[in-house]
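From the shared-data thread, chain only:
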Amino acid sequence: MTVPISWLLRQKHLSLALLTDRAAATHPVTFAQATELTDPTPWLSGGELVLTTGLALVGADATDYSEYIDRLAAAEVSALGFGTGLSHESVPADLIAAARSRGLPLLEVPFTTPFAAVTRAVMTRLSQQEYESVLRAAEVQTRITRVALRGGVSAIVRELATATKTSVAFVGDRITAVHPANQKSLITEVRAVAATTRDPNAPASISQSTPERTLTLSPVGVTDSWHGYLAMAGAGPLSNIDRVLLGHAVSLLTLELEKPVRLRAERTRLNAMAFGLLLDGRIPEDGVPSYLDEASDTHGNVRVVHVRGSGLGPVLRELDNALARAGRPLFAQSEDGSLTVLLRGTDTIDTAKTLLAQLSPTEAKTVRAGISTPHRLLDAPRALVQARAAANLTTATARVLEFDALSGSTILASEPAREALIAMAADTIPVLTEHDQAHGTALVASLRAYLEANGQWESAAAELGVHRHTLRGRIARIEELLQCDLGQARVRAELLLSLLAWEGR
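Structure, as tokens:
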């Protein structure tokens, strides 16, 4: 906030007179400072109206006045107010000449006008302007809120740009908006700047300034749900009111963009409940809810995907995001170490791979998934058995498998056979599990890798990331605990099937 010198000249109770060119009367004043120092510049920051009675300039010559004015001009003060009637009956002509030569406005302050009155006038006007700007900001906030209810993202961007006289853009993954319309290059600029952020999962405000322009980016969203950046580009730094309006617009955009997110989250929660009832066989033939129709294709068929791994939270989020981008609902059930998802019957193994494609290499390495063949909606429990069987047969090189493409998997899909294998495993696998828990070993994982590699030491050791001699020691310990010979193919086959059935129980 500033006070133009022309405004001070119009305040009749101050009786100020401008002694230099009237063109300079537009200089803005940020503060009024009284001082009798011949060099007050160490205590000035620029923009001040310096008030002095010239006590320190008594007996000064033209050079002294010129040097005094030069110091004030170098400090970028807005004007000099010279009080007459105390040390000087009138403003010295040499001082006037020096001020005119440097383009520094010079005001005469009569003896009847206290410096305090000038200071009070400046500060009162600044306070009024601050109050007026707050009122104006409140009006603009109300206006932006109204247009947000009717016009959404584009209306918020347009109103903010109009109110602040800047260029404004919102740049998100799926939504962009800019105003004025001819500033579309701002969208490209914002994306380039946003790409430099260190942590895309926790974006922060970004500001880039030059003497001619300031670009400010504010993240829009809440923790774990970021929608993009609201950017404002304008000449010079943002004012406090501009920042208030920017913050208000960010809040409105967050509310606007969170509505579908919250609605989808609630719908996904209901879908999960319905999926759970479906898998439990608790939905009758004649009582299938209509909203489950979205889970199946036009023929009423579905597929089940079963995902195993550690830290499946990112997997669930990525599946949800991928399906949301396709305009599809999510039907999912989460359990310890596993995730079950319902897809349409027309979806394929490539669909499953695409849904998981955005996982980071670290996340993808721990994930294995199996997909069933198409089934009727009410046969989803049977499809889950197939998906689990396929997931149990995945390897390091084939992390996503389709049940229909498996060879020799029929026995695992047969309920009686699986029960027999689980009963056999109950006498072996828990022995190794208890040993792992008690001694911090990895015998179960080592056994599976060894069996899947068909007894090949190098392949199994590479899968585990250990030396083959380490693996030999673990297998020897397994043989000792289970009292068996893993050199026999029949023993290995029986243990592998038992282990797969045990893991998929």
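The first strand starts at residue 3 and ends at 4.
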